[in-house]
Design brief:
Keywords: Carbohydrate metabolism, Isomerase, Metal-binding. The protein is α/β, with parallel strands linked by helices. It is 36% helix and 18% strand. The protein has one domain (4-227): Alpha-Beta Barrel (TIM Barrel). Helix 3 packs parallel to helix 4. Bound molecules: ribulose-5-phosphate (5RP) and fe (ii) ion (FE2).
């Protein structure tokens, strides 16, 4: 699968969301961080803003729900027009049922793991998912330092994906930048969320292109991609 770069609008100017979304057209997806001030200690946006963003950009929306009661809310983000919906494993009472509901409503189903949540208990669920998100910071805020202690979990997840012959995408989110994206790609990630590294740059589109080039080069020299 080709490398994908997903700018996170968490680091954009929320008073100019439509313009900020257009500033990264050419990216694969627009990553939208939904926070409820319960699952994480921060509050961002909800369904009405997602509906407006869908109308404001041609880039498909990758909604990352950092909210409690994911079983109740995630389907509403599909109805709002999100093309991919990620719920947290820690916030879903019935993750298999929820993933099936998201797919049945027409979006890609994705599950996220906080840094302290291991992948191993979820091995049998992987075929139910289109993407697995490994958080490389504690969720809640942009601009945090990348947790390189997550690299072994990325490697183990890539091994499970290969072992089961799955098409599952492996996303990393948090502290992904020019300094860290190559380690993530070499470990096995193929979808990269970048907030501050894109919106903090003078030219966000150029930052997306530069990150893509770095990730493609790192993937090409990685052992996991060569094994395919
Ligand atoms: O989910 C998130 C935080 O919980 C964000 O997507 C993430 O932190 C992006 O910001 P940055 O690239 O600046 O770390
Ligand atoms: Fe995110």
């Amino acid at each position: 699968m080709a490398v994908q770069i997903n700018p996170s609008i968490l680091s954009a100017d929320f008073a100019r969301l439509a313009e900020e979304a257009k500033a990264v057209e050419g990216a694969d997806w627009l990553h939208v961080d939904v926070m409820d001030n319960h699952f994480v200690p921060n509050l961002t946006l909800g369904v009405p803003v997602v509906e407006s963003l869908v109308r404001a950009t041609d880039t498909p929306l990758d909604c990352h729900l950092m909210i409690q009661d994911a079983d109740r809310w995630a389907p509403q983000y599909v109805e709002a027009g999100a093309s991919s919906v990620t719920f947290h494993a820690e916030a879903a009472a019935a993750p298999v049922r929820l993933a099936r509901e998201i797919r049945a409503k027409g979006a890609r189903a994705s599950m996220a793991l906080k840094p302290a949540t291991p992948i191993e208990p979820y091995e049998d669920l992987l075929p139910e998912l289109d993407m697995l998100l490994i958080m490389t910071v504690e969720p809640g805020f942009g601009g945090q330092a990348f947790l390189d202690i997550m690299l072994p979990k990325i490697r183990r997840t890539r091994e499970l994906i290969s072992k089961h012959g799955l098409e599952l995408w492996l996303q990393v989110d948090g502290g992904v930048s020019a300094s860290t994206i190559e380690q993530c790609a070499e470990a096995g990630a193929d979808v990269f969320v970048a907030g501050s590294a894109v919106y903090g740059a003078a030219d966000p589109s150029a930052a997306v292109r530069a990150l893509r080039t770095q990730a493609e080069r790192a993937t090409a020299r990685s052992s996991w991609a060569c094994d395919d």
